[in-house]
Amino acid sequence: MPPTLLCNCACDYCYQDKTPITMKPEVYDAIRELILSSHELTQKEIPVAWYGGEPFLCLHDIAAFTRDTASMIGNGKLHYTFVTNGTLFDAVALDSIRKRAIIKSFQVSLDGPKHYHDKLRIYRNGKGTYDDIMANLPNLAEYGNIVLRVNVDTHNQGIMDNLFTDLKATLPPDLRPSIYFANIQRCNANVQSDPERYIGPIRFIESKLKLSRMAARHGFTVENLPQCNMGCTYSTQNAFVIDPLGNCYKCWDFIGNPSFIIGNVQNYEDIYQDAEYLRELQFNPFESQNCPQCNMLPLCKSGCPAIMNSDLPQPQEHLSCREIQLIYKKCIKQHIKFHDIETQEVSHENIS
Ligand code: SF4
Ligand code: SF4
């Protein structure tokens, strides 16, 4: 959940509308109630993803929320991930959070080596953020794993080697963050960057595999295995994206679109009867024509359920099933090669 849509940066590819709204105490209280009721029911840990805007702008509020919530459900029951731009650090707030919640990871984005990153990932005054992020990574690593999201575009593929060399030279030897490569996209009208920078999905996968080999040669762990969509908020019961006003949605990309609001966390019990909530939860890949016969189904789950349900537009260039199957096979093969896993040849005839 984003505690604020505000950010100290001004990246031109940002999809947030930066409305100056910050979560109020009554919204934190309502989220706590929702967590308590969910925890009473399942007794399981509660995963919370903090993102923004920049969530570190509200780190003291998050620390107070964590303290009050942990006093009711116990320490270690909240499992946090932070999506942060990595420019800010607050040891007092993080110490307080760490006493009561498990911080799993900080996801920090880089756009390539310094000279390229600093043109794109900039503060509101236009200054580049690279040096501050690099200085902060060891601090953040004291509190949780670092996952570097490296954005790939048409201009930076050929210069990524410089980034890995610099990461290796600058970070302490015991800090080797895991890396994943991401394809930046024009997901809504807030995105201002040049469309010419976007790589289509097929070229992106080719680049990703090449860059993964390069990063691995520099000693970084790269996760390339296809991720199962099963855990996505859209199709999971009792999983919500909550904006700073307490409005609840089923997908990160819906924030700000009133037609996708399924209720407000301050009346969360009403959400379970909301027609939009029930419609979105009912997405069932077994109802599609081809998927039940395809052995990619548990992984692919027909791709993005919000797109399959026509809630989000189909991207202009999208992958055919045959392309999805080939890409998944390539990623799995590369993973096997990297990890030196012994395999037996098996027939793939049942791939539709
Ligand atoms: S750091 Fe993230 S939230 Fe802030 S402007 Fe850049 S993309 Fe948007
Ligand atoms: S590859 Fe195609 S047929 Fe197979 S699960 Fe994905 S969408 Fe369905």
What do you see in this structure?
- The chain has 352 residues and is an alpha/beta fold.
- It folds into two domains: 25-217, Alpha-Beta Barrel (TIM Barrel); 229-334, no CATH class.
- The chain has helices at residues 25-42, 59-73, 91-100, 114-120, 130-141, 160-170, 201-217, 268-271, 275-281, 297-300, 305-308, 321-338; strands spanning 46-50, 78-84, 101-110, 145-152, 178-183, 241-242, 247-249, 263-264.
- A five-stranded parallel sheet has the order 1-2-3-4-5. It has a three-stranded antiparallel sheet with strand order 6-7-8.
- The two termini are 38 Å apart.
- The model is unreliable at 345-352 (pLDDT under 50).
- The structure holds iron/sulfur cluster (2 copies).
- One iron/sulfur cluster is lined by residues 290-291, 294, 296-297, 300, 302-303, 321, 324-325, 352.
The largest sheet, given as strand count, sense and whether it forms a barrel, is:
5 strands, parallel
- H-E string: HEHEHEHHEHEHEEEHHHHH
- What's the number of domains? 2
- Label the structural class: alpha/beta
Number of strands: 8
CATH topology of the largest domain: TIM Barrel
